[in-house]
Amino acid sequence: MERSNSARAAQLGELVTGRRYFLLTLAATGIAAASAVQRLRESPTPDPRASGIQLFIVELLSSRISAMIILHFFLVAMYHAFLLLARAALGALRPLELQQTKETLIPFVLLRCQLLVSTMEPSGHRMELGMLVVWLAALAVLRALLALTQARFQHLLTRPMTQLRDLQRLGAVLVGVIVLNLALAATCSRLRLFSNRIVHVPWFEASLMLLKTLELGVQVGFQSLDVRAASLSEEEDSGYSENSEFHLLLLQTVLSGCYLVQLVLYYLYVISVDQFRVSLFDLILILNVKNATMRLLDKIKHVKLYQRVVLDLDQLFPDATADELESVADDVCAICLKSMSTQAKKLRCGHLFHRLCLRQCLQKASVSDALAGLDPLTRMANGLGMEGPLPPAASGSSASSTSIRCPICRKQVCGGKCDEMTSAEPEHPRPQQPEAEAAAPQTEQQQVAINNVQAEPQAQPAAAPGTAAPEEVLRFSTAFLSRWVPFPNFSFEIVRHRGGMRNFELNARWSGF
């Protein structure tokens, strides 16, 4: 049933965006225009002070059917203009990118429509409504182009070798969005398309989109530095500054804070115009502020992790000696597949990596938890299911989220109990080869243990008289509701003791919003 519904939705999308549908819309618009011209000829003597174009527009919009046809033609034309602009700027468009753009654009347009309905004067004319529709359509095109650029950037991050020219193209598109956004706001103010009641709305929207575009631009610049640093030669490595990436990440956090402040001011302005009342629209505004606050808190946490892990790379791992580099002269780095001649770091498991490659892995581990056992490939490598519980290094606090594993042998090399054990052990040279060879038996033992656990039947035998009775634990949490509605987080835990008597124990915990 779900596949048939998705297939029907895809067929409907192809029909609506097809060339035949556009030609039919164009024919209906031509018929409406011809009908307006015919009515204008049959009407009595028009006002000589009005021009012919104004009389034609007034006559065309006088009928509701003609107005709906014109509005529909305008929206279809704007959609095709967006596709033409996007293909000219970004090249071929992927279906997933278009789907993500539609999912982003629909709530954006609905919220702005509700905002205009709530703040407009009751005695609005059709001409004013038409100009507002034109402004909203142009704003939606810019927002869709920004969402499409963000989807393309996320796609580039998943590619093994990102080209610098692709990131430069994204930067050029973002610059164009900024210029068109400011030009649209200036045009609305120059032509006075908005009434005095909502005259500041276009500048609020322009400022929000500007901050959103700058935030994405910082991410593109952040990735461009990594790509550029990876392409530098060994002689140019000395001129590369790692603090610049930290400053870019800090700038992104500042932009997120500015976006939150601007969003709160915008909603306060809307409430001052429309007066606060308990309605669905006000709850949506509050939810948007909450989501922006959570994004800001995540950015702050990422900055702290980056500063603690990435910038302390020299203290975490020692440099490889000349003898160690000579022993792996015929080998390559497992991350970038380039020869290891200089600037190599040695992990506690004995494997060597380029300093820049290791720093990028630590950066991804601290920012996106790519090496902390959260991505699908790492979960499969660790013997965990796709929907299973997180490993202790990933399900703990922020301090344990910096637990890094070696990309080759998957041994823990940073964070958690590894640091405590290392500090407690005396410092003495460790041979590299025995540790690398010892990783294979340990991996086999872990795999055997995992297979035994998976093959274990669900029904457990009764406990012996001298042993503790097994327990069954059922956990439930409402944390997922806080993403959509302002609901407190409650955690329930039901423990069933499987002894001689069936005893149940209920534990509840409240962790706030």
UniProtKB/TrEMBL annotation:
A single Pfam family it belongs to is: zf-C3HC4
> Is DNA repair one of the keywords UniProt gives this record?
no
Q: Where is the composition biased (Basic and acidic residues)?
A: 420-430
What are its GO biological-process terms? protein ubiquitination; ubiquitin-dependent protein catabolic process
Extract one GO cellular component term from the record.
Answer: cytosol
- Renumbered to this chain, region (Disordered) spans 420-446
Q: Where are the transmembrane segments?
A: 65-86, 129-149, 169-188, 248-269
UniProt-listed PANTHER family: E3 UBIQUITIN-PROTEIN LIGASE RNF8
Q: What is this protein called?
A: RING-type domain-containing protein
Task: Tell me the keywords, alphabetical order.
Answer: Membrane, Metal-binding, Transferase, Transmembrane, Transmembrane helix, Ubl conjugation pathway, Zinc, Zinc-finger
Q: Which Gene3D superfamilies match?
A: Zinc/RING finger domain, C3HC4 (zinc finger)
Q: Where is the composition biased (Low complexity)?
A: 433-446
Question: Which residues belong to any copy of the RING-type domain?
Answer: 333-410
Molecular functions per Gene Ontology: ubiquitin protein ligase activity; zinc ion binding
InterPro entries in UniProt: Znf_C3HC4_RING-type, Znf_RING, Znf_RING/FYVE/PHD
